[in-house]
Amino acid sequence: MFTGIVAAVGRIESVKPLGSGDDAGVRLNVEAGGLDLADVQLGDSITIQGACMTVVAKTGHSFEVDVSRESLNRTVGLGETGEVNLEKALRAHDRLGGHIVSGHVDGLGTVTRFAPVGESHELRVLAPREIGRYLAYKGSITVNGVSLTVNSVEDREDGCEFSINLIPHTVQVTALKHLREGVRVNLEIDLIARYVERMLSAGMESSNRPLE
C-alpha cells in the first residue's frame, strides 16, 4: 500500500527488452533521485508513476524493475526514459498524508488543460466514463502516483472531465510539472469508493431477490 505522497522524482535511465517477441516486457533502470534506498530490499515494492513495481536489483543510487507487457499496455510513462514520481511502500507506523493507494492503475486519462491560475496550476483531465462514476467533488484521485483532491467533476459524452488545483509545492516536487495538454496520465480511483460501490450494488441485488 502507498499514500500518493511522492517521496522523490527519479529518472528512468534505460529501458531494455526482456525478450524479442511482441509480448516481451522490459527491464527499467531507475535513478532514484532523492529516494533513500538504504532500507530497500530485493522484492520490495516501489511505485513508478503510480504503478506498483517490484525491485529486482539495486545499487546505492538506482534500482531495477521488470515491467510486463500487460503493465506496459495499461499504463503510460514506463516504456521510455525520463523523470518519474517515486514512492516506497507504506509502513504500518507511517503517516497517511494522502489517501490509501494500491499502486494498481485503473485507467488512463488525457490532460485537457494544464495552466497557471494565480500562484497555482489548474489541471484538467478527461477520464474514461467507467472511472468517472468514482469521482466526486472533494474526493481523492491519484494521477501519476500523486494523491490529489478533485475540485470539480463534469460528465461528458466522451468521458468525465475533472479538475484539480495544484499548489506550487506539488508542481515543484513532482514530475507533474512536465504535463501538457494531450498527454496521457495514469489514474487510480479511491479504494474506498470502489468498496462503497460494491456494497451498494450487492445490497440492491439482495433487496431485489425474491423470498423463497
UniProtKB/TrEMBL annotation:
Lumazine-binding repeats: 1-99, 100-200
One Pfam family in the UniProt entry: Lum_binding
E.C. code: 2.5.1.9
Any one GO BP annotation for this protein: riboflavin biosynthetic process
Domain of life: Bacteria
Domain Lumazine-binding: 1-99, 100-200
Top EC class for this record: transferase
InterPro entries: ATP_synth_asu-like_sf (IPR023366), Lumazine-bd (IPR001783), Lumazine-bd_dom (IPR026017), Riboflavin_synthase-like_b-brl (IPR017938)
Recorded catalytic activity of this chain's protein: 2 6,7-dimethyl-8-(1-D-ribityl)lumazine + H(+) = 5-amino-6-(D-ribitylamino)uracil + riboflavin
Keywords: Repeat, Riboflavin biosynthesis, Transferase
This protein's pathway: Cofactor biosynthesis; riboflavin biosynthesis; riboflavin from 2-hydroxy-3-oxobutyl phosphate and 5-amino-6-(D-ribitylamino)uracil: step 2/2
GO molecular function: riboflavin synthase activity
Task of the protein: Catalyzes the dismutation of two molecules of 6,7-dimethyl-8-ribityllumazine, resulting in the formation of riboflavin and 5-amino-6-(D-ribitylamino)uracil.
NCBIfam families cross-referenced by the UniProt entry: PRK09289.1 (NF006767), ribE (TIGR00187)
Protein name: Riboflavin synthase
Species: Paraburkholderia susongensis
